[in-house]
Each structure stands twice: as C-alpha cells, then as structure tokens.
Amino acid sequence: MDAIRTNALTLGYGEEDIIEELDLVIPKGKITVFIGGNGSGKSTLLRSLARLLKPKEGSVVLDGADIARTPTKKIAQKLSILPQSPVAPEGLTVLELVKQGRYPYQSWLNQWSEKDEKAVQRAMEVTGVKDLSERKVDSLSGGQRQRAWIAMNLAQDTDIILLDEPTTYLDLTHQIDILDLLSDLNEEENRTIVMVLHDINLACRYADHIVAISNKTIYHQGDPDTIVTPELVANVFGLRCQIMNDPHSGTPMCIPFSRGRRKKDASHARKMDA
Amino acid sequence: MWKGNFIMIEKNKGKWIGLGIGSIIVLFFMWGSVIWGLTKIDTQMVIDSFLRFDGSNEHIIIQDTRIPRSLIAAAVGASLAMAGAIMQGITNNPLASPSIFGVNAGASFFVVLGITAFGMTSLMSFTWLAFLGATLAVIIVYSLGTLGKDGLTPIKMTLAGAAIAALFSSLTQGMLTLNEQSLDQALFWLAGSVQGRDLNILTAVFPYILTGLVASLLIGKQINVLAMGEDLAKGLGQKTWLIKVLAALTIVLLAGGAVAVAGPIGFIGIVIPHVARWMVGIDYRWVIPYSGMLGAVLLLIADIGARYIIMPAEVPVGVMTAVIGVPFFIYIARRGINE
C-alpha cells in the first residue's frame, strides 16, 4: 500500500528545475526519510508532497486523487506538515498553538466541538506538553517547543505526518527525544511519517525506507541496511567514508574520512590510556 | 524591559467587560466632542437642538459642526486602527499600517489628482478615487514586497511601503504646484482633519466603512492562522490567497473610506494595534475590535485636544496624532531591532 505517490513530478523555482520527472512511492505506515546534500531538493520535494509548492509538471497523488484537484481542507484532514523551524507569534500559548491543529475540521457552521477538545488534549498528552499548556511557546526550550509543534500536527489527526528537519537546532539529547516520539507515533498509532533529516546515522536508525536524493532525482531508495553503502554516500554527499554496523542498533553507520586531528600513532594512544 | 503586560486582560470574560467599558468611553468622548470647544455648549442645548431647533448659533454649531465632527472622528479613528491591525496581522510586521505602507498616500494622491486635473468636486467621486488609490497602493506594495526568491519579507514590504508613500506624496505635491487654482480645496482636504467636514461625506462613505468593519471582525480567526506563517496556514488547509485578498479588500474599504472622509491621518493605524495587543494578547478576534475602540478614542481625544492648544485657532488633528505617534513609533522600531 502506498500513502503518497508522485507521477513524473518536476519541481523548481523560476527557470531552474530542482527535481525532474520524479516517480516516488511513499509506503503506508512506515517511516520514510529523505536524505541528500544541501540544496539537493529534499525539502522542496517534501513541501510539494504537502501542496505547499505547486509542481511545474506532473502530479502528487494522495488516496488515489491528485492533490491539486482536492479541496485543501480535505487534504489537511489526511496529511499534516511541520515546516522547518516554524515561528509562533510572540505570546502564543502552547494550548492556543495546539488548538490551531483543529482548523481543518472547522467552518462557519462547525465551531469548537467536544471532538476537537479531545483531540487537543490527547495530542498534548502523547507529546508530553500538557503541563506546559499555559506557557508561551516562545518561552520554551528548543526541545519542548518542537514537541508543542508536533502536538499541533497530532491534533490535526492525520494518517500522514510530514516533517522538514524536525531536529534542526536541537542538541543531541533532544534530537533523540523527538525521533523516539515520532517512532512511537509510527509504531503505536500506525502513522505514516515522512521527514527530511540531515544526519545520515540517525536516518539509518529510524527509517524503514530511505530516499537518497541527488542530481534532481532519486539516486537510490529502500531499506537503509541494504542501500546505505560507501558508494551511496560518495555519490549523494560527495564524501568518502566507511560504513560500519552501529554497535547499539545494528543499523548502518557512516564513519567519514577526514583530515581532522587524526591520531597518527594509535598504539601510542592506547599506551597512554593504560 | 517594559512590555506593558501588567495591563494584559487574560480571561475572555474580562475581555468582554473591557469591550463594554471601552464602548462607554467611546460614547463619553463622542459626547465630549460635541460639548467641548470654543463655543460653550451643554447637554440640554444638544437635546434641544434635536427637539426644538431654533436656528440659534449654538444649535447650528451643534447640528452642522460638532455632531458630524464627533461621528467622523470616531468612525475614522476606528477604521484606521482596524486597518492597521489587519495589516500587521497578515504581514507579520509590527510597522505595518495604512500610513507607513503608502495606502493613505495613494488614496490622497488620487483624490488630489481628481481635484486638480479633472476638477472633481463631488463627495462620491472623492470616495471612489480614494478607494482606487488605496487599492493601487496595496497592490504595488504587496507586489514589490513579494519580488525575489525569498518571497514576502517584512523588511522588503516596509521598504516598498516607504518608497510608495514617498512617491505618492511627491506626486501629490507636484500636482499642487502645477495647479494653483484648486490648491485651497485640495490643501483643506489634505491637512488630515475631522473638522469642517459635512455629515454628507460620512453618510456617503459609511456603507463601505461599515462593510469593512464587519468584515474585519469576521476575519480575525483566519488572521490568527495566517499569522503562524504562510506554510503552516496552507498546511492546515487555509486558502491563504483568498484570506489575503479578503484582508486587502477590507483594508482598502477601511483606510480608503477614512481617507476619503478625513484626508490622510497618520500613526493611529500603527500605534493602536500595539496597545490593543498589550491589552488582549495576540488573538486577532480580540485585537481587531479593541483596535477599533481604542482608535476611536484616540482620534476623539486628539481632535478635542486640537481645539484647546492654540485656542481660538485649531491644530490639524493629523499633527496631534503625529505628536502622540512619533515617540511610540520610535519605541516600536527600536524594540524590533533589539530583538
């Protein structure tokens, strides 16, 4: 089963194409991660899946229908997106932020209902921001703030959640914290998660399906265990590296070759330790 | 730093009560605007002028000068402040307002063009010209602000607004120097005043201003969503282009209507929405009505003050609002830079 698919999708700004004639399938109920170098078009591709960017050519298909021809509120009930580093208006509280997630379900006739209230409370519980509900979003730490935004996405109650670099500007502890939360949402609630990540090692740990983007198209895609090779890293990131098994998770781990401060005499270093 | 949070009203009940008290204050100053001034007038005279009009000097002043002036000040003050609140909400820009973004200047230029180049004198033609000028200014500023790869940014929009305001002001001055016969009529209107305006001007424009007022009260919830950013609003399923077009139309009705009646009056549109946010927070469903209420009060007070400063002569009310507004403007600009 596929959650989203694209047909000969071409994306770009002005004259320049960023993605060309791409056919992509996002598997349902899985975590899919886009990886690629800076400016490779991975964020552009994610934005187009959420109809934030109109395709130049081709189409994005959600539930068998072209999203360009589906009412935007209907899409918002099936698919939510968290853009990169969103900024809440100064003074907005966590509760007010999470409540905005119910926007797709409201109209002039349907104002705030009990169902909306329940969805909001649940979203805050799952993400652990219930105790912060009266706090101002701009007063929270980076990790708490990102949880509050994810709570807004959850309140939207969609099967598919797209996130554009959800761990940017977070320290490692909070990066793991956010990715664990997303992993739980995927496993316990069977939500399809699609995200852009910078860190290839974290991508390998959390993704069921990796899409490596390079040269305006997909370089390779599939299970991280089989597709992430030194060759892929060299072609997608232009980096020479060694791939090892992550001692904790067993997933591929990239050890980059660099000049850096390499220890020329490893045996000497060991002696010092002893 | 002082952020004015001590006057913040937290609960919805408090906000409704504040709205009630505010409306009473508006009515009080509307009454004061009729009573206070060079000619001494008391409440009994006002009532008599309606029930037993005797053609006396006082009754004529009440009916022809003071009451129109009071109503116009309240309507214009509310319109400019609400237009400013909507502009600040949809552009995410604390400096946005009809005067800074050239909307008032655009409306003024078209009215002066009508007076000097085409000899127009009717109120209805002023109204349509003002709407036309306001619309043109909104379109130009928005287009210029959106140019370039990174799309609409607050700084580009402010620069575009300042440039367009300067352009329309110079064109207006150019028109005036070219055509001295109509100078008097145009200058009178350009001074930005609620005094000496016939009530007919207000009744001609009132339907448009009223439409703008109602629309601005309905659009608050949508602005709350749009204020979170274009991508988020789209992701939540908002038709952001539609909301922006509706907001722009509302701004044109309010600011264009206000300029048609009173000429360009600055600073209300920028100052008042900030005061409203200090009082009720960032929810535009409250910011917009509070802006309307506070804008009406500010222009009424400025206009009453204008009568007393150099009595028996009067200061143009546009000068009064500038005197109040400039220090505040500098405060906001500095705060914006510091953050």
From TrEMBL, chain A:
GO terms classed as biological process: iron ion transport
Domain ABC transporter residues, every copy: 4-240
Pfam families noted in UniProt: ABC_tran
A Gene Ontology term for the protein's cellular component: plasma membrane
Keywords carried by this UniProt record: ATP-binding, Cell membrane, Ion transport, Iron, Iron transport, Membrane, Nucleotide-binding, Transport
Region (Disordered): 254-274
GO molecular function terms listed in the Swiss-Prot or TrEMBL record: ATP binding; ATP hydrolysis activity
Localization terms from the record: Cell membrane
Position of the signal peptide: none
Gene3D superfamilies (UniProt xref): P-loop containing nucleotide triphosphate hydrolases
UniProt membrane topology term: Peripheral membrane protein
PANTHER family: IRON(3+)-HYDROXAMATE IMPORT ATP-BINDING PROTEIN FHUC
Name under which the protein is recorded: ABC transporter ATP-binding protein
Source lineage: Bacteria, Bacillati, Bacillota, Bacilli, Bacillales
